[in-house]
Amino acid sequence: MTGGEALLRWSIRAAFVLYAAALAGWLRRRPRLAGWCWSLGCLTYLAHVAVAFHFYHGWSHAAAYRDTARLASEMIGVDWGGGLYLNYAFTAAWAADVLSRRRLTASRWRIPLHAFLAFMWINATVVFGRGWMRWLGVAAAAGLAILGLTRPKAAR
Question: Contact, 34 vs 25, CB < 8 A?
Answer without folding.
Answer: yes
